[in-house]
Write a structure and sequence with these properties.
Bound molecules: adenosine-5'-triphosphate, magnesium ion
Strand content: 25-35%
Helix content: 25-40%
Number of domains: 1
Shape: globular
Structural class: alpha/beta
CATH architecture: 3-Layer(aba) Sandwich
Number of strands: 10
Radius of gyration: 18 Å
Largest sheet: 6 strands, mixed
CATH topology: Rossmann fold
């Protein structure tokens, strides 16, 4: 399997607190990888390391190596990296602009011409299944969308610039079952084209959508395995305790 990201001996601390402890992990291209584990175990912090957004926090001391397509992350400039590795957060981060302008934002930033922008936006709405729902509303404020639509628009917005990897930090945690299912279906439809890494508290979600699952506990990766094996026949007793609900 082709690893698009390789994380080697990654350690991270905030001041005296060590938050990531010697993380070693390979992320396979074209798969959905879920990261699970109790609150505070370092899932979001690990995700933030994968596109160097962590560097915006001066308190974070990072050691170790992460490669993206076999090149050290530190050798990319941040703009190129953000273009190649998109991110979607727990709460919708839409700008107080029209739906169209939200979708246009990164394209403009990266200098894509207006005629091309229009085509890309239309195509992105289609591949994310939002075209029928939103095409007649493109001039409306994005802030008027429902929570589910807003999160799907955040995913669409991240895809306009055609990243290779999409990082998602609990994108469904404030959504109901129906909207969660829409996001899950969307992610499954995208996985042939994009590598997806999703942090989720929802173990059933990890089971439903991911090829591989990574279980973290107290800053360490305890187990990474095929999702089926991790949930049905885990190698570590801690994983077993977590997936069976004995620890949380
Ligand atoms: N900016 C920061 N400054 C200092 N400590 C931080 C910062 N961000 C996170 N931490 C600490 O790092 C640890 C890991 O936090 P992180 O947000 O990565 O956990 P998490 O697994 O995503 O938790 P949750 O499931 O609640 O989102 C926690 O102890 C947290 O308090
Ligand atoms: Mg988190």
């Amino acid at each position: 399997m082709n690893s698009i990201l390789k994380i080697n001996n990654l350690n991270l601390s905030y001041g005296q607190q060590t938050v990531l402890k010697n993380i070693n992990l390979n992320i396979n291209k074209g798969e959905i990888t879920s990261i699970i584990g109790p609150s505070g175990c370092g899932k979001s912090t690990l995700l933030k390391c994968l596109n160097n957004i962590i560097l915006e926090n001066p308190e974070a001391v990072v050691q170790g190596s992460i490669t993206f397509n076999d090149k050290e992350l530190s050798s990319f400039n941040l703009e190129d990296l953000r273009k190649s590795i998109g991110m979607v957060f727990q709460q919708s981060t839409l700008f107080p602009l029209s739906i169209y302008k939200n979708l246009e934002y990164a394209l403009k930033y990266y200098g894509v011409k207006a005629v091309e922008r229009k085509d890309i936006i239309e195509n992105t709405l289609k591949i994310t299944g939002l075209y029928d729902e939103l095409n007649s509303l493109l001039k409306k404020s994005a802030l008027k969308l429902s929570g589910g639509q807003a999160q799907r628009l955040c995913i669409a917005r991240a895809l306009t610039i055609n990243p290779e990897i999409l990082l998602l930090d609990e994108p469904c945690s404030s959504l109901d079952i129906i909207n969660t299912k829409k996001i899950e279906d969307l992610l499954l439809s995208l996985k042939d084209k994009y590598t997806i890494i999703i942090v989720t508290h929802n173990l059933s979600q990890a089971k439903r959508i991911s090829d591989k699952t990574v279980f973290m506990y107290d800053g360490e990766v305890i187990e990474e395995n095929s999702t089926f094996k991790l949930f049905n026949n885990p190698e570590h007793s801690l994983t077993s305790d977590y997936v069976s609900g004995n620890i949380g």
